[in-house]
Amino acid sequence: MTDRFAQWRAPAHWQAVDCISDLHLQAGEPATFEAWRTWLARPVSERADALLILGDLFEVWVGDDALQGDGPDAVFWRTCAQALRTHAQDTPTYFMAGNRDFLLGPAGLDACGMQALNDPTALDFAGQRWLFSHGDELCLADTDYQRFRTQVRDPAWQQAFLAQPLAQREGTARELRRQSEARKQASGNDPSLWADVDAAAARLWLRAADATTLVHGHTHRPAEHDLGDGMRRVVLSDWDLAAPAPRAEVLRISAKGLQRRPLKSA
Ligand code: MN
Predict the structure, then answer these.
(1) Contact by Cβ (8 Å): 54, 132
(2) How far is the centre of ligand 1, averaged over its atoms, from the C-alpha of 105 (Å)?
(3) What sign for the dihedral angle of Cα 146, 174, 115, 240?
(4) CATH for 243
(5) Total domain count, the chain
């Protein structure tokens, strides 16, 4: 298990690292996309030394060939890729897969100028070791989802899925999202009722990585939880600029510690 927590040491000149997750970018939600694109394009002097995207950047990803063609989705994905590539020319940009965009492959990463991060990844930075994850693997109480996750993360399953025509994969993804939305509606669309990260599993991961702080997304419940013995887990905010109470936030890590920066000041 220890190889899962292989150590990554930040370059000595890094002063700050920004973390975001759960933007769920999609052609049908221009407000979040525009806010994100404007934020990405801010002057280099206002940026951290690296950007870590901890999953669910995209609402759905059915294969890197989704970037090809003239359809509105393909044009949208290419616009996202272009914004990321331009950003990455000045700021190293790292991508960890979420449960929506785990099929982003080498060609897609390359189109976006991003470097892949394993889930989980431990980083030595600012005098501490940080552990990063999307977070879905730790939501152990949702046994249906964990079964699904095991299936779709299997290389043989992915190979068979990616061999299907693009339109068929898009149809499957639509059906899965419809089922997921139906489950959310059935639970009153209340994130506090959805499965959460298992505290004991989070502590095990932190001990295995010899880290004290776990930073993750996925649950859309931004908070800081004390895990005891000096350990904590810090949950990123999702982004939704079209919500009745719009939200978008960047977590900045520096020698000063953790800072939640609402989009306007980030
Ligand atoms: Mn997720």
Answers:
(1) yes
(2) 17
(3) negative
(4) 3.60.21.10
(5) 1
